[in-house]
Amino acid sequence: MPTNDSLINDSSNTVHAPAKTDISHIHQFLGAATPQAWLDAALQDIPTLLQDHANCEKKAAGTAMNLIFRYEFHQDLQLKLAQLIREEMLHYEQVVGIMQERGQAWRHLPASRYAKGMLKHKRTFEPAAMIDVLIIGAFIEARSCERFAALSEVIDDERLAKYYRYLLKSESRHYEDYIALARSLEPKLPKSDSADSDATATAAIDFDQFQQATNGSINSDAQTLDVDQRIAFFREVEAELITSPDSELRFHSGVPA
């Protein structure tokens, strides 16, 4: 599988294990750890896990591309997501290559309830909608990182274990990038806390430009755009999706029913 990534040696197609990556911040960010029951089920059906992993990498790149087109005025977002898209598509190529090595044919696999279960809580006005999408993206990346780490400790396949360990650094960075982008939309409260101050909250971007670019309604109220409040909200939603019974095994599914 040709690639410029240092993980893969083009002549031998072997995976080189990276140094151990600290993901303690990921565990602190998430509201629940992956249940042992999910790990047990995943180890019994690696082909489904690989197929859904490939799907997730492709969808992550597609989601980031959609954000680039929708919010083209936000330069920092453009640059960070362009890098993310390249990395997600490289990972997609690598997972497909691993499937081919194992003689695993591509098959259609419906998406899990996971992303939809969070997106149904996305607000409809801007920039709150964008903040929610970015926070949801952060949880997806953080959960991916947490599961790669968990799988690498128990999977009886050193090739996959090394590959999952290799992915930890980029997935943890993706989560951090999404949170940083969400915070860039958070209004900055006035430094003065004087009761008679007539200063108003200002945002990191021009909301008039935002409204024109997105052709949507704007609510720049500081409380509405409190990123920490939305992180806390989606932390509970995401944890419920991960720890509750689920009828299908997927990379981000809940406890096997």
List the helices and strands and how they pair.
Layout: H1 24-29, H2 36-43, H3 46-70, H4 75-101, H5 114-119, H6 128-154, H7 158-183, H8 207-214, H9 227-243, E1 245-246, E2 255-256
Parallel strand pairs: 1-2
Q: What does this protein look like?
A:
The chain has one domain: Ferritin (Up-down Bundle), CATH 1.20.1260.10. The chain is mainly alpha-helical and 257 residues long. 35% of the residues are buried. A two-stranded parallel sheet has the order 1-2. The protein is globular and about 50 Å long. The protein is built from 9 helices and 2 strands; from the N terminus they run αααααααααββ.
For the largest beta-sheet, the strand count, sense and barrel status come to:
2 strands, parallel
Structural class: mainly alpha
Assembly context of the chains: single chain
Percentage of residues in DSSP E strands: under 5%
- Report, as a whole number of angstroms, the end-to-end distance: 37 Å
CATH superfamily: Ferritin, core subunit, four-helix bundle
**Count of β-strands:** 2
Rounded average pLDDT: 83
The amount of helix comes to 55-70%
Quickly describe the structure.
The protein is mainly alpha-helical and 257 residues long. The protein has nine helices and two strands. Strands 1-2 form a two-stranded parallel sheet.
Overview features:
9 helices, globular
